[in-house]
Design brief:
With 230 residues, this protein is α+β, with helices and mostly antiparallel strands. The chain is 28% helix and 35% strand.
């Protein structure tokens, strides 16, 4: 910044520049130049070469600001284009069977929920324990003890045979290895069909078995070559 502009900033004259900024923008720079011209000594005006240099600085600043605006517009356009393409692709997934990661379950009027887990080795015993949103155990299911992927269906009944209420649930795998040690499953997941796509403020959500899931929670599309009705 030139000595003339510095003197304006250090004087008692008030210059209306943007507040709460760590850097001056092109509008602030122009206001300072105007103030500098207004307060120059008529008997000793600003040197023309100095004024030309400041005009060149302003021109460069304006070009950089415009370039930044163009780049931001380009990034925004690319983002919306990507979102549009993704939304079209998500719509094509309706009817596909998918594997959804995690152990959270949503009961919302279905007749059953298919869940799965993967064991690193053969187990002696395996129990699937299902809890309600308050952490109370509602169902215990004995399952396969095989190494690799294991799948089962929960009919949404509790240990008394009564169908549970709609709401949020979770399941945990308690497996015992052949040597008696506690075994930790490699992964847990749900299996279901994509019934629809919902566009929300949080992004595009997939409707799977009556529950909403982010697209990044999908681990695998099981029947990618055909829809669920084929």
């Amino acid at each position: 910044m030139s000595d003339g502009i510095t003197s304006i900033l250090n004087s008692n004259n008030t210059v209306n520049v943007s507040k709460n900024k760590s850097e001056l923008g092109k509008d602030d720079f122009l206001k300072l130049m105007i103030e500098q011209l207004k307060h120059q000594d008529p008997m000793d005006p600003m040197d023309s070469s100095q004024y030309s240099a400041q005009l060149a600085q302003f021109s460069s600043l304006e070009q950089l600001t415009n370039l930044n605006d163009y780049m931001k517009q380009s990034v925004d356009a690319n983002y919306f284009l990507t979102q549009s393409i993704n939304n079209t692709l998500y719509a094509n997934l309706i009817g596909k069977e998918v594997k959804v990661g995690g152990s959270e379950l949503t009961v919302n009027g279905q007749s059953e929920i298919n869940i799965g887990y993967e064991l690193p080795e053969h187990a002696k015993t395996v129990e699937i324990k299902i809890y309600n949103e308050f952490g109370r155990l509602v169902k215990t299911i004995n399952s396969d003890n095989s190494k690799g992927e294991n799948k089962l269906s929960w009919d949404l009944s509790d240990n008394n045979g009564v169908k549970v209420a709609n709401g949020n649930y979770s399941f945990a795998i308690e497996a015992t290895a052949l040597n008696g040690d506690k075994m930790v499953p490699a992964s847990t997941y749900k299996l279901g069909k994509i019934d629809g796509v919902k566009y929300t403020e949080s992004g595009t959500m997939l409707v799977i078995n009556g529950a909403l899931y982010q697209s990044d929670s999908i681990l695998e599309i099981l029947n990618a070559k055909g829809s669920g009705g084929e």
